[in-house]
Write a structure and sequence with these properties.
The chain is α+β, with helices and mostly antiparallel strands and 286 residues long. It has five helices and 15 strands.
């Protein structure tokens, strides 16, 4: 029953009579589909459709929501939410919660946790639970990192920078982080256009190599031409956000893909629904 304490996370509370309507109108997540015991991914976007803040959102009682985000972004996230508040009857604040704990590969609740678990909905092919009572300490953070990487789950900071990625780039469209049937939200027009036209070219891929990978941020290249950027790593496995059309062209041509000087293989997460394009684009489409 492996677990890890995540001290780099923070909890933002949004509560009040208008909380659900307020969040439904600005976030990518469809709150109509949010169950009482799950934490769903989502984002607050720029009007141009890029991710300003990413999070996991869960219900924290009647007319109350908990948004788990990176601790270093929490204050900015609250300020941005407040800008959209206007006359909505909501209260926005940061919860006094020092530790978020994650448990994986178990369908039972560990006795050291006092609260009920929330299913991490990003993992469509594995059981992952998050606890917000802060009662468990320690665990194996490196094992959690390796598990997350193996399942192709990207997070901001480690795998991409806020303001640089669209939801499709980091597979929010594949893991329930975007409500395509809900009404408008900030950046919705751009995201919907990418979905309906099928124009997403940058995607999260799982990286593997026969020797340890370089550090996060290393460029992936084919014959000196960039195809993507390396994110989180765990020994010889990692994540990358890469142009799948350029990767397909390299695979078809039998050309090596390098992370610095390390030859790598790139694979689509086994659970993902997208695929490499049938025809790779040429240099004129770069």
């Amino acid at each position: 029953m492996p677990f890890a304490s995540l001290r780099d996370r923070a909890l933002v509370s949004v509560s009040g009579p208008d909380a659900e309507h307020f969040l439904q109108n600005i976030l990518t997540t469809d709150l109509d589909a949010l169950g009482s015991s799950e934490a769903k991914p989502g984002a607050l976007l720029t009007p141009q459709g890029k991710i300003l803040f990413d999070f996991l959102i869960s219900r924290a009682g009647e007319n109350a929501f908990r948004l788990e985000c990176r601790a270093e972004t929490a204050d900015d996230f609250m300020r941005r939410l407040t800008l959209y508040k206007l006359r909505a009857k909501v209260q926005i604040g940061k919860l006094d919660q020092p530790v978020v704990t994650v448990l994986w590969e178990s369908d039972s609740t560990a006795s050291q946790f006092e609260s009920a678990p929330f299913a991490d909905a990003r993992f469509v092919d594995a059981i992952v639970k998050r606890f917000y009572d802060g009662t468990a300490e320690g665990g194996d953070l490196a094992a959690w990192q390796a598990f997350r990487i193996a399942h192709g789950i990207a997070e901001s900071g480690a795998d991409y920078q806020l303001g640089d990625a669209f939801p499709h780039d980091v597979l929010l469209d594949e893991i329930g982080g975007v409500g395509f049937k809900k009404g408008c939200y900030v950046g919705q027009e751009v995201v919907s256009r990418m979905q309906h036209r099928g124009t997403a070219r940058r995607r999260v891929l799982i990286v593997s190599a026969e020797r340890p990978l370089p550090t996060s941020g290393a460029e992936l290249t084919v014959e000196g031409r960039p195809v993507g950027t390396l994110g989180s790593t765990a020994g010889r496995t990692g994540l990358a956000i890469a142009r799948i059309d350029r990767v397909k062209a390299a695979l078809d041509a039998g050309l090596p893909i390098l992370a610095d000087d390390v030859a790598v293989s790139l694979a689509i997460p086994s659970w993902a629904k997208f695929s490499f394009p049938q025809e790779a684009v040429g240099a004129e489409d770069a």
